[in-house]
Specification:
heterodimer, A: 112 residues, mainly beta, 5-stranded antiparallel sheet, 11 strands, 0% helix, B: 4-stranded antiparallel sheet, 50% strand
Chain lengths: 112, 113
């Protein structure tokens, strides 16, 4: 079982619509959850972090966490062509190791 | 805004040569990481470093790899004898604490020929 699973996509969404990205994780001890955006050939760029169950909103982005279901999602409202990228879900524990484990990413394409 | 800086941005080396990739983490961060990403593949954890020692390393991080924090600012990854399959983007990241976000540098593209 993969530690962090994401649908690889591509997910194609019309401009102005809501893009919904999903992620599941296997380690029940995970306590920190992140969404990164990665443009081709570039480094991961942090979009959102979430640490407790529920929703967290930041501008056009909303992260949702359900620890019981081991599920994290990211909603992007009013999608723009510049949102076209690969979105990486990442999780980590509170521990001395504290490594952050990434999923393979979902490719999102916003069509004008 | 503080950022993680990495040098060089691109390194070409011959198979069997040693390379050192350099990183300057954000100044008040305590946890440092190296990741790699082979073209078209996922971001893979290599090693975490805290309090001047390795906290955890992955299976990829074998005896050919080492990390060092030679002074108060730099964090280096050394590959002793490079192989063709070491060709990848190498990212350095740092975070302030265990419950905070990690920020990534722009990466070093390593090409082994």
């Amino acid at each position: 079982q993969k530690e962090v699973e994401q649908n690889s996509g591509p997910l194609s969404v019309p401009e102005g619509a809501i893009a919904s990205l999903n992620c599941t994780y296997s380690d029940r001890g995970s306590q920190s959850f992140f969404w990164y955006r990665q443009y081709s050939g570039k480094s991961p760029e942090l979009i959102m972090s979430i640490y407790s169950n529920g929703d967290k909103e930041d501008g056009r982005f909303t992260a949702q966490l359900n620890k019981a279901s081991q599920y994290v999602s990211l909603l992007i409202r009013d999608s723009q062509p510049s949102d076209s990228a690969t979105y990486l879900c990442a999780v980590s524990r509170y521990s001395s190791a504290s490594k952050i484990i990434f999923g393979s990413g979902t490719r999102l394409s916003i069509r004008p | 805004e503080p950022e993680v800086t990495q040098t060089p941005s691109h390194q070409v080396t011959q198979m069997g040569q040693e390379v050192i990739l350099r990183c300057v983490p954000i100044s008040n961060h305590l946890y440092f990481y190296w990741y790699r990403q082979i073209l078209g593949q996922k971001v893979e954890f290599l090693v975490s470093f805290y309090n001047n020692e390795i906290s955890e390393k992955s299976e990829i991080f074998d005896d050919q790899f080492s990390v060092e924090r030679p002074d108060g600012s730099n964090f280096t990854l050394k590959i002793r004898s490079t192989k063709l399959e070491d060709s990848a983007m190498y990212f350095c990241a740092s975070r302030k604490g265990l419950n905070s976000e990690a920020f990534f540098g722009k990466g070093t593209r390593l090409t082994v020929v």
